[in-house]
Amino acid sequence: MGNTVVKICGLQDVEVLKSMLNLPVDYIGFIFAKSRRQVTLELAAELILQLKSWQNGQQPGSVGVFVNPELDYLDQVMNRVRLDVIQLHGQEDADFCLKVKQRFGVKVFKVIQVNGNGIENSHEQLVPKEYIGAIDALLLDTFDPVYGGGSGQTFAWEQISQYQMWCEEHNIPLFVAGGLQPSNVGELITNYHPYGVDVSSGVESNGLKDIEKIKAFVERVKQI
Questions:
Q1: Which Pfam families does this entry report, sorted A to Z (predicted)?
Q2: Distances (CA, A) of 97 to 90, 122, 138, 150, 197
Q3: Tally of domains within the chain
Q4: Per-residue pLDDT tens for 138-192?
Q5: Are 47 and 60 in contact (CB under 8 A)?
Q6: Which residue in 6, 65, 16, 18 sits closest to 39, CA to CA?
Q7: Strand 208-209 vs strand 204-205: parallel, antiparallel, or unpaired?
Q8: CA pair distance 91, 89, nearest whole angstrom
């Protein structure tokens, strides 16, 4: 029970992060790509500093979310804030993912965007074999033509199983994002058993992170 990994993404508020200090959250995501949740380097540094104060004995990993970044920009970010994970949300190929892993000594999460109607958007193949060894986790998210994710919409969950089989075959953790919230994450975990779940808009009220919704989401995930 409670083994599913939780990632809360799109944090921008230091006070909200402080109020999460006793929650069993595994990863905190900070968005550096174009988004209404985008953070500056200065704010990211302040937020990541708060992770050192986590009270449950397990400091969450810090995840930076990027869409088709240049290596020079990643250099700038990593020189200012020390991320544990770089999450790539664009059309980054396996070669780029491997360069990021080797250059910065971080884990790399690669996102595949799935259309809400059940048609894969990013790859003709399920996942190109070149990604094996180049990524540390695969994350499924709902396709968004503008921001590449964070739409708050679910995709066709029946597609998860084929990705799950691929990930299990290659020992790669599978995260699921896209439209998750306290009311539906239990169904997802019960039916598909992903390694981890990733939420952003589903724990917001009026576009801002809501600590009560965050608590409800984490509690729901960890009780299953």
A1: PRAI (PF00697)
A2: 11, 15, 12, 21, 21
A3: 1
A4: 999 998 765 555 567 899 899 999 999 999 999 999 999 999 999 999 999 999 9
A5: no
A6: 65
A7: antiparallel
A8: 7
